[in-house]
Each structure stands twice: as structure tokens, then as C-alpha cells.
Write a structure and sequence with these properties.
Length: 189
């Protein structure tokens, strides 16, 4: 999902506030909880997003519901989103916050797609190789896709490194179809 610039601005402000209090990871977890709750609980999502409910009632509700579980920064941040009619951006803000947090902590998220679960040695080899290339802590997110038959596909943002068997087979097929067959060669049995 492409993160919208408004969400990125809010995420940046939240990151700076959390950084000042030294609670970056805590705020990330709290924001994730809110996003998960909005996805799972239809009533909560409707209450927060319905324009007919006064903003003050929504902010009071947020304060009561999350007071014992969340930091003051997260609660106030959600109230600011409500106040500015931006609560619908919370998922995008969360994604953007995660990206900014990864930059802050010098991390790089990498999606590795393979036909079977990676064994530890291959996982460490991929991690080490990418760490050496990008000079960042690598966080591998594995996905299994049996359709690639073998090998792996590595996705780093917009960069795709395709080392899958299915890609190799398609390349061979393409080369065979493009190659010219000489007709003057005779074959005998």
C-alpha cells in the first residue's frame, strides 16, 4: 500500500514525540493494537468513523477505553486524529510509522518467497548477504508459494530479486521459442 503524505506527516510527528519519551516500540505496539481493533471490531470502527457522533464524545471514549493500557502519547495522538477528522488514516499512519521506525533503527524488512520453509542455514545466508549489501539489520518475512517450484524470490520495497525455478523455466521456454531451427539438418533414427 502506498502511504499517503498526510499519514506520513502524522507518523513523523508521533515518532518524534515517542522518541523524546524513549517509548518508540511501545507506541508502535499500541498503534498496532488500535489498527487491529479497528479491523476486527465493526462497532468500534463505526463509532470512531461515523461523522454524526461529536468529536468530544469520541475523544472521551478513547480516553476511557485506553487509559489503563496505552501511553499518554498514543491516546493524545488518536484524539488529535479525531479532532482533525483523520481517524480514517490510522492504518496508513501505522504503516508509515513502521517505515519511519525501521529507518530510525537502521532496519530493513525483506520479504522472502519460497516454495517451502527456509531452513536455518539458508535463512542466515540470505540475512548475512543482505546485511552486508545494505548495511542494515535485516528482518525477514517469509512467505510460502508452491507455484514458484523452487529457489527464492526476495522483495525489498520495489526491488525484486527473482531466483525462482519458475522464472528460469519461463526464460528457457522464451529462448527456445525465439531460437531459429535450421531446416537443413537431417535426423535419422
Amino acid at each position: 500500500m502506498v502511504v499517503n503524505e498526510v499519514a506520513r506527516v502524522y507518523a513523523g510527528a508521533l515518532l518524534e514525540s515517542a522518541k523524546e519519551k524513549n517509548i518508540l516500540d511501545q507506541v508502535a505496539e499500541e498503534l498496532k493494537s488500535v489498527v487491529d481493533l479497528m479491523k476486527e471490531d465493526r462497532d468500534f470502527r463505526l463509532y470512531i468513523n461515523v461523522p454524526g457522533i461529536p468529536k468530544d464524545a469520541k475523544k472521551e471514549f478513547i480516553g476511557k477505553v485506553f487509559a489503563k493500557h496505552f501511553s499518554e502519547i498514543t491516546i493524545n495522538f488518536i484524539k488529535i486524529l479525531i479532532n482533525n477528522d483523520r481517524q480514517g488514516l490510522i492504518e496508513e499512519v501505522f504503516e508509515s510509522f513502521g517505515e519511519l521506525l525501521d529507518e530510525e533503527k537502521n532496519r530493513l524488512r525483506v520479504k522472502v518467497i519460497s516454495s517451502a520453509k527456509l531452513d536455518d542455514s539458508l535463512r542466515k545466508k540470505v540475512e548475512s548477504s543482505l546485511n552486508e549489501k545494505f548495511r542494515k539489520d535485516i528482518i525477514i518475512e517469509e512467505k510460502i508459494d508452491e507455484s514458484i517450484l523452487g529457489g527464492i524470490i526476495i522483495r525489498i520495497g520495489d526491488l525484486i530479486i527473482d531466483g525462482s525455478l519458475i522464472k528460469d523455466l519461463k526464460n528457457i521456454k522464451s529462448r527456445l521459442l525465439q531460437s531459429k531451427v535450421r531446416s537443413d539438418v537431417a535426423y535419422e533414427d
